[in-house]
Amino acid sequence: ASADIGVYGLGVMGANLARNLARHGHAVAVFNRSHQRTERLMARYADEGAFVPASELADFVASLRRPRVAIIMVQAGAGTEAVVEQLRALLEPGDIIVDAGNTFYKDTQRREASLREQGIHFVGMGVSGGEEGALLGPSIMPGGTQESYDRLGPMLESISAHVDGTPCCTHVGPDGAGHFVKMVHNGIEYADMQLIAEAYDLLRHVGGLSVPEIAAVFRSWKDSELDSYLIDVTTEVLERVDPATGAAFVDVIVDAAGQKGTGSWTTQSALELGVAVPAIAEATFARAASSSSAQRRAVREAALDSGAREIGYDTAEERQSFIDAVRQALYGSKIAAYAQGFDEIATASTTYGWDVDLGAMARIWRGGCIIRARFLDDITRAYEAEPALASLLVAPTFATALESVLPAWREVVATAALAGVPAPAFASSLAYLDQLRAERLPAALIQGQRDFFGSHTYHRTDDPTGVYHVLWAEDGRAEEKWD
Ligand code: 6PG
Prior knowledge:
Blueprint: E1 5-8, H1 12-23, E2 28-31, H2 35-45, E3 51-53, H3 57-62, E4 69-72, H4 78-90, E5 96-99, H5 105-116, E6 121-128, H6 130-136, E7 139-142, H7 146-159, E8 162-163, E9 166-167, H8 177-205, H9 211-220, H10 229-239, H11 262-273, H12 278-291, H13 293-301, H14 316-352, H15 358-364, H16 375-385, H17 396-419, H18 424-437, H19 443-454, E10 458-460, E11 463-470, E12 479-482
Parallel strand pairs: 1-2, 1-4, 2-3, 4-5, 5-6
Antiparallel strand pairs: 6-7, 8-9, 10-11, 11-12
Helix pairs in contact: 1-6, 8-11, 8-12, 8-14, 9-10, 11-12, 12-18, 14-17, 14-18, 15-16
The site of 6-phosphogluconic acid has 12 residues, from helix 8.
């Protein structure tokens, strides 16, 4: 047995991960269901390092040194299930199977429990950074046992992105923690993208800026707290001119956003855990709404009187101040969205006993992944200063930032509503913050309604643990205290 680690599945992501490992001096066994892919990898990249190709799965397994580590990089779902079963039959106690795909964390929990019975470690591992990241340094989020991380960790840390000399990889926690954190990373990615898209739309349709002007605005935001990979990506997309038509590239793309499921999983899991993640949910719903072409057409053709106001900015100064307000609204909403994502991780960590270090999650997202940004340093520092932070919103850096952006943020949300330009994630992030800061919420009225029609009971402000019910149907409407 001569290979340090194996990669099963040589699509672009798998092949790049294998090459990254080989380039870092690890001997990598490679296997793919159709052997052609393995041959192609060897023909093109064999000189990049020590590869051990196999055409039979048994040879692949036999080439791995013990305890064996096999990374699976195949399509999540049925594909992963089948490969896990094939490997299970060939591996021994102490060996480690790593699923590097975007798998739903409950599937990972189920597989982990079942393989544990056989003494095999199953590691659900989030990998972010797309194809380029897999090759040049991704952000890596492995779950599973500490024992498996002791064997795997050094290899993974060597191939991950590094920021300030620190690897963007750490042991997230046991069980499905790695895949859960990757799922929430994607949920935050959805929210961040939607917020940026809303900023673009407002600049264009309220601010009256042209696409190249908006690209220049985004480029200038690199020098602000918004500096991030997604802002870079946005700038590049907006700067592109379609060669065929000469139009702005963004104008030739069909405006129906796709999705592969991780945003919905994040939202569904939040609903299940009872955590509010409105920015992530709005971003997911916005993709769905954009893709509801029949409904969009029907409502558009109904030509409803929108009641929208014509809003214009006459002077350069007014326009600049609107651009600035949008930047502040974007920053405020971004803080709210990240606070929601971290809250979801914190809640899952408590629910499942994972003990996830939230500051470390922000640290491993600083490089390699899609949401990489300067901003994440502030999150790491916030959790280092106060590991039990109730919400990122109250960390001193963010609380101060929110206070300074809130007036502009309110202005932008109100303007968007008046102008009839949809900004669901901006608006719901603001409402989220206002809900959390309110002294009293109308939830009291909801409790009253629930008690009225379903005897669902309520607590009193002067007796918060007592259970009360009003005898609504009786004349006196007496209040009873229940046990
Ligand atoms: C990453 C990305 C990657 C991705 C998802 C989401 O971390 O490298 O999050 O996992 O972009 O595939 O894709 P959809 O937008 O298609 O859901």
